[in-house]
Design a protein that fits this description.
single chain; 29% helix; three-stranded parallel sheet; 9 helices
């Protein structure tokens, strides 16, 4: 099925921004990136999803293992007692032995929360996770696993967990997994900001939608 993801601004990375732009997706692949009028004319039967703000490539999370296994992501039913933010350090230790079942639930929730921040790729040495809970949750989600070449290190996240890939302080090209290209996998993120400068300033908490291999896996309601 053909789907057009249209927005006031498309930021392909590696190519010029497209005002009133669109990304045409067929299955799990990008088949066009360009002005909406031109894209829609070339695919008259396509479903159109109109988004606010900007469409960008999906983001890369360098610290997935740290965020998933050194942080506990509370179940919504635990929110009154534990809050909604990831627990780590002394607060995690105070929970005691969580057991595999509870940890598995935390990892699944952590992966889902990464998707809410526009993440479509996670990094690990050798582009694979050896922890079975993490590898299973990541595989089921469809996230791309990439190597750690160029990783910024762990100092920032050693101070506090942050699901926002922009927390590393990089610009958009330094935060995405790769550019939006024809023939490439359809991994997109949508942010409710007016431009690239506002995105890097406000971060991925402005995410309103994430598309993973052509599938809409997160949409803010």
């Amino acid at each position: 099925m053909l789907t057009i993801h249209a927005a006031p601004l498309v930021l392909p990375v590696g190519a010029a921004p497209v005002v009133d732009g669109a990304v045409l997706v067929e299955g799990d692949r990008i088949t066009a990136v360009g002005p909406y009028a031109q894209t829609a004319a070339a695919a008259p039967g396509a479903r159109v999803r109109r988004w606010p703000g900007v469409v960008t490539p999906g983001l890369r999370q360098w610290h997935a293992l740290w965020l998933l296994r050194r942080c506990y992501h509370p179940d919504p039913r635990e929110a009154d007692e534990l809050g909604e933010l990831p627990l780590y350090g002394e607060r995690l230790a105070a929970l005691g032995d969580l057991g595999e079942t509870r940890w598995a639930g935390s990892v699944r929730r952590g992966v889902q929360r990464m998707l809410r921040y526009g993440t479509t790729a996670v990094a690990s040495p050798g582009a694979r996770f050896h922890d079975p809970l993490v590898s299973t949750a990541v595989a089921r989600s469809g996230l791309t696993v990439v190597g750690i070449t160029g990783a910024p290190g762990s100092m920032l996240l050693g101070e506090r967990p942050d699901l926002d890939p922009f927390a590393e302080g990089y610009d958009l090209p330094g935060t995405v997994h790769g550019p939006l290209t024809v023939g490439g996998r359809a991994d997109l993120a949508v942010f409710d900001v007016p431009d690239e400068a506002a995105l890097t300033e406000r971060g991925a908490a402005t995410c309103v939608a994430t598309v993973l291999a052509g599938r809409l896996v997160y949409r803010r309601h």
